[in-house]
Design goal:
This protein is of the alpha/beta class and about 200 residues long. The chain folds into two domains: about 5-75, no CATH class; about 90-170, Formyltetrahydrofolate synthetase, domain 3 (Roll). The chain has six helices and eight strands, in the order αβαβαααβαβββββ.
């Protein structure tokens, strides 16, 4: 996501916590100029940035991150939640949509609303909600990139994850599993002179 457009989504992810660190992975398709630009925007939000290479260097590449997390854990902090536990499932969805995704409203047909009321009647209303939607936008439209505002979040399906203890609200046209990138990493792997290349 190009900056400065990235600043809005980053700020939205950061606001609920008193202490945060932002991790950027070093990998060969991410250049230094991109890392410098992203780091600059995140630091402007008052958040520490750590560059890690654990993908290629294992635990050694994440040592700086581990040290920063330990430092943050030792600071006094107070977590702010998006919604209270006793909110209804609809109120939880609305809070996430408006406070995190920048939407004006949540919409759903009568069948979906009835399913949410039924889950509450069966004792699942205290569960947190998980919103399944496109990763390309804070809206439910993958073509509306970044962090648009003044959009609606439409719930098209409700799933109960009773064992995990949360309710999944499927929004927009999305395949929930598996979460795959546009270009699979396997396309970069090859065998050259008997050596595997392109793993990292």
């Amino acid at each position: 996501m190009p900056c400065p457009d990235c600043a809005v989504p980053l700020a939205t992810h950061i606001w609920p916590v008193a202490g945060a660190v932002w991790l950027f992975r070093r990998w060969r398709r991410r250049g230094e100029a991109e890392l410098d630009l992203l780091s600059k925007h995140v630091r402007a939000l008052g958040v520490d940035v750590v560059l890690a290479s654990h993908w290629s260097d294992g635990g050694r590449g994440a040592a700086d991150l581990a040290e920063k997390v330990v430092e943050l854990c030792q600071r006094p902090s107070q977590m702010t939640f998006v919604y209270p536990d006793d909110a209804t499932l609809w109120e939880k969805a609305s809070a996430i949509a408006t406070k995190v995704y920048g939407a004006t409203e949540v919409t759903a047909d009568a069948k979906i609303r009835a399913q949410l009321r039924d889950l509450e009647a069966r004792g699942y209303g205290h569960f947190p909600v998980c919103i399944a939607k496109t990763q390309y936008s804070f809206s439910t439209d993958p073509l509306l990139r970044g962090a648009p505002s003044l959009h609606s979040v439409n719930i098209r399906e409700v799933r109960l994850a009773a064992g995990a203890e949360f309710v999944v609200l499927v929004c927009g046209d999305i395949m929930t599993m598996p979460g795959l990138p546009k270009v699979p990493s396997s396309e970069l792997i090859d065998l050259v002179d008997g050596q595997v290349v392109g793993l990292f």
